[in-house]
Amino acid sequence: xxxxxxxxxxxxxxxxxxxxxxxxxxxxxxxxxxxxxxxxxxxxxxxxxxxxxxxxxxxxxxxxxxxxxxxxxxxxxxxxxxxxxxxxxxxxxxxxxxxxxxxxxxxxxxxxxxxxxxxxxx
Length: 122
Hints:
Elements: H1 2-14, E1 32-34, E2 39-40, E3 56-57, E4 63-64, E5 86-87, E6 92-94, H2 95-112
Antiparallel strand pairs: 1-6, 2-5, 3-4
């Protein structure tokens, strides 16, 4: 039984390529987690639900009252995505919902690593 739990955790952990997100480790299904970041070449291309409603989008995907309130030491989860180095707002959702809502954006960001010209909107 323990081996199964360790295996599930390894798969779950491997599905995300950044650190510092939220994960519900209560083992209730479906799992709630911080969705992997949506990386775009300009934040104007972030989906509406991944924009800060009242405030400023910080480089690390968090929202703050103003840009001076952003944590200057926080790391940008999209820094290694070439032209798509801007992070949209990070959100917590069910794992399958993250995948259903944002997979096309993740695929487009992966293309930024391999191509100079990428479609801005998947």
